[in-house]
Amino acid sequence: MSFNLLVAVALVYVAFLFTVAFAAERLAARGKGRFLRSSTIYTLSLSIYCTAWTFYGAVGYAARSGLEYLTIYIGPTLVMVGWWWLLRKLVRIGRSQRITSVADLISSRFGKSTALGVIVTVMAVVGTTPYIALQLQSVTLSFAVFAEAAGRGWGTDELAQAGLWVAVGLAVFTILFGTRNLDANERHNGIVMAIAVEAVVKLGALMAVGAFVVWGVAGGVGETLSRIDASEIAQWEQPGGRWVALIFLSAAAFLCLPRMFQVLVVENVDERHVVMASWAFPLYLALMSLFVVPIAVIGLDLLPEGSNPDLFVLTVPLSQGQSGLAMLSFLGGFSSATSMVIVATIALATMVSNHIVVPLWLSSSGSGAVLSGDVRSVVVLARRMSIGGILALGYVYYRISGGSAALAAIGLISFAGVAQFLPAILTGLFWRGATRSGAATGLIIGFCVWAWTLFLPSFGTEAVINQNILDHGPFGLDWLRPRALFGIEGLDSVVHALFWSMLLNTTSVFVVSILTFPTPIERLQGAQFVNIFEHSASAHTWTRSAAEAEDLLIMLQRILGPSEAQTFFESEAGRQGKGGYLPDVTPDFIERLEKTLSGSVGAATAHAMVGQLTEGASVSVEDLIAVADEAAQIMEYSSKLEAKSAEQERTARALRQANEKLTALSIQKDAFLSQISHELRTPMTSIRSFSEILREGGLNDDELGKYAGIIHHEAIRLTRLLDDLLDLSVLENGQVTLQQQRGSLMDLLDQSIAATGNTNSQMQLRRDRDIEASIRLDTDLDRLSQVFINLITNAQKYCSAEHPRLQIIVREVSGRQVVDFIDNGAGIPPDSQQMIFEKFSRLADHRTAGGAGLGLAICREIMLRLGGKIAYLPGQGGAAFRVTLPDAEALAAQ
Amino acid sequence: MSAQSKANIFLERSNYRQRRLQDAARLLPVVGIIVVLIPLLWSDHENQGTSFGLIYIFGAWALLVIGAGYLSRKLHYNPQNQEQNTLRSREDF
Known about the structure:
The structure holds 2 protein chains of 2 kinds. In chain A, 68% of the residues lie in helices and 5% in strands. By secondary structure, chain A is mainly α. In chain A, β1 and β2 (484-485) form a beta hairpin. The termini of chain A are far apart. The relative contact order of chain A is 0.08. In chain B, α1 (2-37) runs antiparallel to α2 (50-74). Chain B has 2 helices and no strands. Chain B is mostly helical. Chain B has helices at residues 2-37, 50-74. Chain A binds chain B through residues 66-67, 70, 74, 77-85, 89, 92, 225, 228-229, 231, 233-238, 240, 243-244, 247, 271-272, 275-276, 278-280, 282-283, 286, 290, 293, 533-534, and chain B through 22, 25-26, 28-30, 32-33, 36-37, 39-40, 43, 48-54, 57-58, 61-62, 64-69, 71-72, 75, 77-79, 85-87.
């Protein structure tokens, strides 16, 4: 069979794959993609777990170590059968949180942390690159087998060149079908379809070779079994540690490998597909591994010593002249290798662009997601460059690493590297106490232990870890020997590395998580993830809508492309019952927008972008707490303000009252002044006019006497008025000095009556002198006398009765001694009873009385100063005044 | 009334059945782990032959596949169904 035919067949096959992918994408774009996403396709897509390492390498593994190769398939079987425990939750979370990769899962769970995303991405790239190199090597070796069979041996140069061609071809295919659209869900319909086709091809190829070997060569099942028993691997000596460790390792890798996560979780469209895959995929795995041992055994029998058992799948049919079968087998191997590389590269490129490139670009561009340029083109460019870069790395690793023996071990090493994600994933999914610091610590420690014990030693003793370090540890530290940490020797290197890395990783996750306190958003995400089955998927509790819908549409168009963004917006608007493309910016809408966006650029970046645009429109718990603090501060401030304003009101009221008083006083003063001037003017007018008359002369003695008498009289009146004014002023200002004297009331009244000059003919006085004599006074008697004189004089002047009579009655009222002066006149009308104590108030025409109207005002002031009272006493028939005598203490207090 | 209670019993039975199937789904991987670890007990035993090991492993594998297949058929798994939305089963009785 000519080598060129093989190449031609390979190219046709590749073209066929292109067609399938293209058709699938076209159908999906037209909306008919439903049938493409059946559970069968889902199950078949999981087959990328079986790479060239398992297609070729399993046979080699079996030929060397018996049944141990089964561990690589048993692990995933257990995970699939146990879907109720783990996969169900993983897929549910992946779909509701729009998780786009392993890095996104871990980053999102632990508070949408960019740092964790970076760590996981780097670890994934480091762990996966050797595996890609392994695939390249497998493909080139398979080409070499056919070249050799056709007579042209291939040297390293040809192998390298073939490897280059394969790498470039894969890059083209991946870029073409992996980055043409940015699907919001990160789903790649074309690729998945191509993978499903390849799954069928590789299963068919392997089973064909197996069937050929069992029935064609051996002659039936029984014969096959007996040949197995007769072969080198008849005895199955299985080290128990490796058996368990490798089952655990393959199970862990099944979940953590970026490519597996991509097809298991990200590409999943319906949770129910998992249920079918739970039995269908283990079946697939069983069929893939069924014929491995027969092929190995027959190969060991038929082929010469020293032939590479890894390639038995090709060489056995070739040796039997089955070139068609060999070509089919070649295509199977080719499929396994290429499907793995395509999906792994896409998964890695997604992680690199979402978690490293875009955050870097966003933070460097500063002003935000909308203003500086086209995010979508950045994302697409980043993805394409990542794809190219990762394949280039893989190719370089392939060139540097040299022999196939070194590469075969890389499969397990790669598994162990990605298995370091497992503690972070499992604790994140099931334990709300897991924190970001814990996860980061675990990841870093696990990575370091893995690198030290497994990855670096794999480069050979000429590279980083030389023999000296292997034997004696770095810097002579015995307990840090890469193959015997802490002095525990004799363990198989993979088991040893797995044990220590998992132990230290898990322990640090637990310890650091317990010791650290998560941020609010970590706790929110923790509750969402761990309790995914009990919650709805609503992350945000409170929003303000600051962004215009149009701004958001612009941003989304830049990421997803105009048509998809507009479709989303239109459906959102329709959901709100509006027409057109611009829905109201409600909290629900923002949440859905962020979810949609996170499908393209990862949850952390989407959150940052939406947050930037809407200025925190979707408020996180963190923001809520800050707002609550603010609200408390504001309430405190406003209550302070209220208190202040109440105080100010009181002050204003007091000021108003004072103002009123002052105004009243001012009016009073004006009134007083006008009164005074009036009072002064009246006698002055008389004095002046009569003086003029006197000056004119020509008066007789009688007239002279009369007029002089009038002048004198008025002058006296004037003087009296001025005296009274002065007295009142002195009293009011409190400048009066009071002389404390003792005496009896009777004596005082005698004096006062005598001073008034009253005779019985003018006004009859009724008194009870005995009672008066019994009252002892200890006060300013002169002033008190002044009051009595005034009252008696008033009664004399104003009593209108025909036979005026004044009663002076001494009583005790409410514990105080009072003296009542009651006349038998007309009394004072009720509305004037208060007014009479005011200055200048007179009730009748005063010219006849001759007073100024200050008398009662003075009495009131005097009584006030002495600590007594004077008041009008109504209901006595005539005018009645009650003088309340001061207590002895009252005067003392003056 | 008897028809009503019969209907109730039927409904309850199907619910109960579903719950037991869910329990079986939880149990199956545990059985799988145990089965897969049994070969560890065979060191220094007669049954160390590769062919025997092959038969044993693939036999167990087939049983797991059939078990999972049966469960996937009978379990009317509906992600929208709140009753199934828990890792722990919630029984009323």
